[in-house]
Amino acid sequence: MQSSRSRVVNTLISRIEVKLGWGRSTEWSSRDFEKLSLLILEETGERLSVSTLKRTWGRTTGDNQPSVTTLNILAQFVGYDHWRTVPLEEEEAPTKRQIIGLSRIPLLLGGGIIFCLIIGVLLGSGFGVSEIPKPDIDPDQIEFSVSKVAYGIPNTVVFRYDLGGQQVDTLELQQSWDDSRRKVLSITDSLVTATYLSPGYFNAKLIADGRVVKRYNLYLPSEGFQVYALADGQDEFYRLPGEYWHIDDNRFDFSPSYFAYREEASVVYTELLNLLPSPPVSRDTFSFMARIKLSKARVESPCHGIGIAIVGSEDVYRFQSGQLGCSGYFSMYLGGEVVNGETEDLSYLAFPADVWVDISIQKRGKQLVVNYHDQRRTLSHELPDIGKIGGVRLYTQDHISLRVLRFEDSSGIVDLLKRSRAVR
Question: Could you tell me which of 192, 270, 263 has the C-alpha nearest to residue 237?
Answer without folding.
Answer: 270
